[in-house]
Design goal:
Shape: rod-shaped
Low-confidence stretches: none
Number of strands: 0
Strand content: under 5%
Helix content: over 70%
Order of helices and strands: HHHH
Amino acid sequence: MLIAAFGCLIALIALSGAAALRKAQEIQGEIAALYAAHREVESTLNQVRAELHVSGLYVRDYLLDPSHLTGEFYRGQLRDLRESMHRELKTLDRHFSPEDLGGLEQLRQRLDAYWESLEPLFEWTPRQKMALSYSFLRREVVPRRNAVLEMAAAVAVLSEASLQRQEEAIREQQRQFRDGLVKML
């Protein structure tokens, strides 16, 4: 009887150890997934910022180019950048909670306004490009680009706040895990 009781005690210790190990692995997996998602958000926002700067270079190059034959090339490059940025913003949707999606939607709206502000450029004649390009860049393109960059920074702040909330939830799980282990002991 003593051997059976001792065997049950060993089995109970083994089962509780296995349960503790499984819970520790689950928490570790959540932490790894949390940081991977945060890295993806940061990487995507950095890519959006970089593509926004590249679009500004294309616009500047187009406005400085006296030829009227290069318009379609630049328009195509800008269209590709716009589509790429749209895809990148779609990937961000799955990383934000419903209450944080408003900031992402504002970023989308400001990006759309930026892209729409560029459309008239491709209707200009070479003479209009020479006469209007500087004031158009200062009045339309630069402020809209800056608004997009500010909104991207705001989205990064939302991402950071979301990360902190999730870290707090994981800390709470770890505390509960620790308390559970103490109770088992």
